[in-house]
What does this fold into?
Amino acid sequence: MHILLIEDDKGAAAYLVKGLSESGHIVDHAIDGEEGLHMALTGCYDVLVVDRMLPKRDGLSIIRMLRADGKTMPVLVLSALGEINDRIEGLRAGGDDYLVKPYAFGELLARLDALTRRVSEIPSATLLKLANLELNLITHKVYRAGKEIRLQPKELQLLEYLMRHVDQIVTRTMLLEQVWDFHFDPETNVIDTQISRLRSKIDKEFNQPLLHTVRGRGYRLSESE
It folds into this structure.
């Protein structure tokens, strides 16, 4: 799992990052609410672990903003506030689970596994759409404004990944790992070449570009610049 931990207690955060990493997970850490919200909005995570009491922006407001933005990744709330009304408030804010401090690491790990397992059991949509661009996951056919666009297998895989992360910045590292299954940088222009080919097919004949390069950061599939 790729986990985002938003926790301002440095000792507690170090303990969790170490434990989760040793359990085979990738963990990014944000030290305050503002940083955590930015990372959650722009990154690609399987699950969030969010402390309720944070500097700059509290955990529940982060969750509310993510849900308002359409982000559906599961969220586990951590809090020293353990009364029933506190737990109800956390769940109604959009949290998927609520764990009261102090907690056992084993229980936290089990709850994260349960959350991600629950998500994986939900049938995925068979049609991905952005503006007038459509990708049918069953037939593997792509259409824009009703016109079929023929893509090579790797171009199709690249487009699917981008369409599953609409409006998010997708980095070269993310593409190398998720589309090419490289866990190192081969130092070639393979990504630039494939992006260029994909852009020429889905954007060239249309007035509104959808595939954008974000200088120094990566790429974004979006209706806006």
